[in-house]
Amino acid sequence: MELKDIMALVHPALAVGVVFPVIGIAVNFAWQTRQRRLQTTEAGGKSKIPPVVGREHLKIGRWLTGLVVGVSLIALAASVTFKGVFKDFSPDKMPEAIFVVLMFVATIASLFFLYKAKPNQPVWRGTFAALTSAGLIILGSQDGVWRLSNQWYISHYYYGITASILMIISLAIIPEIYKDKKWRIAHTVLNCIAIILFFGQAVTGSRDLFQIPGSW
User: Fold this and answer.
1) Which residue range(s) make up the domain with 174?
2) Is pLDDT above 70 for 94?
3) CA angle, residues 70, 65, 87, in degrees to nearest 5
4) Is 216 domain-assigned?
């Protein structure tokens, strides 16, 4: 195995070893939070589920967004480095290379500022969420990224980018969830779709490991 093969395995290793366990924890806390809310409503304010589950779900959910976006960026970085603009690098590729590097920096910075945006700043939260999502899409459109655009409906790339954007949106709308039931329903629907996409990623990612040619 060469360096590019080892780097290609970093993304699936982190997904299996870190991201998917955190998804399980987040789903567990989400279910307990909902059950506590229902029990509190039906039992006149009493529930055996401790109120801390809501705070834990929020904390784990914030972590999950960063992990999902981070793992996506690692996969894209490996692709453009070993199969895209930085492969057989030459001076005439310098403008494109600089653009790609700046896009990575801008995407990471946008996610950072999204985390830092305050609950009373919906415009900034929406702006940074849009910039982070746009950064992922632009980076994903670079040469070297294994997209399978002619089979987008079973593409690991499209599943991953869509799931990442859903996670970003979920992070951006957190303050609204506590203000309006409609936002809470939207949050639930978005994350249910994301869970389905994560299952799809597990299948398509395993398939791509066989399909993407290695250096051997």
Assistant:
1) 3-211
2) yes
3) 20
4) no
